[in-house]
Amino acid sequence: MQKQTPLFTLAETEKKGRCVVAVCPIQANTIILCEPSIATVMYTTSRTSFCAYCTDSLPNTTTQLACPDCKKIFYCSKKCFRADQLLHKFECRAYKSARAEFIQDSDAVHLLRMMSVFAYNEAHSTRLYSDSFPSLPPFNTLTPLQKLFDLTGHEGSFTGEYETNQRPICEEALSYLKYQEVRGMFENVLKYGLHENRCTICGKSRHTLPGQARHVCLRKDSAWKTQWSLSKLEFEAITETLICSWESKHGKRKQSENEEIPLEMMQATLVPLLISAQSIADCNAHTIFRDTGFGLFHMGSMFNHACCPNSAFCHDRRGRIIVVTLRPIRTAEEITVDYSELCIAMDRRQKELKGTYHFDCRCPRCVRTTLNRLGSGTRNKTWAAVVRAEEEFERKQGRMGAEEADMDQCIHSSTCE
């Protein structure tokens, strides 16, 4: 596929957060996005039938390759085998020493692959099948770890049960890493300020202000941070602060002579971030075509849901996500996709969306259905009439009105580099 001028950009509003918006009229059946994943994993039942890197079907020939160490993961070619070595590194080690229950859990295996992104972030910036498009600033300069934490999980819906369930998985995953590998993860976390919940675009705190759906910085390109580095003195100062905080909470622990930084302190810093990474994957991962596995895609996760979408997801034979339009789209119109099943009843769709993605759908289709149930008679009305009816309905119910921001004013520069 050839690179093309971006047909969409990201709009950012205080109340709704980010959404994908068309920057020009787009015809139906137009491919507007092609993107490789940050990390992909095959389901247990698919690991012997599909390539662990590109997700293509394995050939029934001698070109099929198995990992020589764990002999559990297969590849369609030597190119894919070599390209997957870093992502597979921790996973391979776990296959040889982990509990069967752990390695059969696809979410746990995906975590091991994401941990490789933590440890070898820069090395993952180049992918074998990386001819993706479009190129949107500032995202085209982000590293995989920055892209991962640019996404949001369901931290606002965290329960003690979720963290309790995820913590032992994250701790076990860390136990398969060597000291220098854990330190590599720790250094990258400090480099981007992830331990302080900092934005990976502007470097400031991601805490939202009252009335904000999420941290807002895309429309302030002068605030974008371009240099991400820590001097030795800065790294030592931050590390010393974390050590002191950890020791005051847990008491001073015995430190190995080979450990410049206490291993337990680094693990304690990393576990909450790994739980957040799991949360991000839970909310944003996409099932690979043919239900063979799932992958985490940065730009592919920016598309909001609608039960009557104007675009759809699919995947190519290189494991990349493809977004294609289903109908003509107007300039400044939001581009939406379906997160659920289109042909099931609204109540079931709402339940699935609430349970998995933690939001109540207010898309045109759901609004029409709700208003018709209330006897508002909107079945044959235009969309403008439905919006007016919805606003009146919300005013009567004392709820927040429709989004007031003008999408034309929110469109961010989409110059292709």
Briefly say what this structure is:
The protein is α+β, with helices and mostly antiparallel strands and 417 residues long. It is 37% helix and 11% strand. The strands form 5 sheets. It has a 3-stranded antiparallel sheet, with no helix packed on it.
How do the SSEs run, as a string of H and E?
A: EEEEEEHHHHHHHHHEEEEEEHHHH
- The total beta strand count reads 12
Number of structural domains = 2
What shape does the CA trace take?
globular
Helical proportion, percent range:
25-40%
What is the overall pLDDT average? Answer: 83
Low-confidence stretches: 396-406, 411-417
How large, in whole angstroms, is the Cα Rg? 23 Å
Q: Number of helix segments?
A: 13
Distance between the termini: 17 Å
Return the structural class: alpha+beta
Largest sheet: 3 strands, antiparallel
Strand order in space, largest sheet: 3-11-10
Q: Strand percentage, roughly? A: 5-15%
Describe this structure in words.
The chain has 417 residues and is of the alpha+beta class. It has two domains: 37-296, no CATH class; 299-410, Beta-clip-like (Beta Complex), CATH 2.170.270. Helix content is 37%, strand content 11%. It has helices at 78-83, 85-97, 100-103, 106-119, 144-150, 160-175, 179-191, 232-250, 263-284, 346-357, 364-373, 383-397, 407-410, and strands at residues 8-13, 17-22, 31-35, 39-42, 65-66, 74-75, 286-287, 293-296, 304-305, 311-315, 321-325, 336-337. The protein has a three-stranded antiparallel sheet with strand order 3-11-10, with no helix packed on it. Strand 1 (8-13) and strand 2 form a beta hairpin. Helix 6 packs across helix 9, helix 7 (179-191) crosses helix 9 and helix 11 crosses helix 12. The longest helix is centred in the middle third of the chain and has 22 residues, at 263-284. The protein is globular and about 70 Å long. The two termini are 17 Å apart. Residues 396-406 and 411-417 have low confidence and may be disordered. Keywords: Metal-binding, Zinc, Zinc-finger. Residues 51-92 form the MYND-type domain. Residues 6-340 form the SET domain. This is Suppressor of anucleate metulae protein B. InterPro entries: H3K4_H4K5_MeTrfase (IPR050869), SET_dom (IPR001214), SET_dom_sf (IPR046341), Znf_MYND (IPR002893).
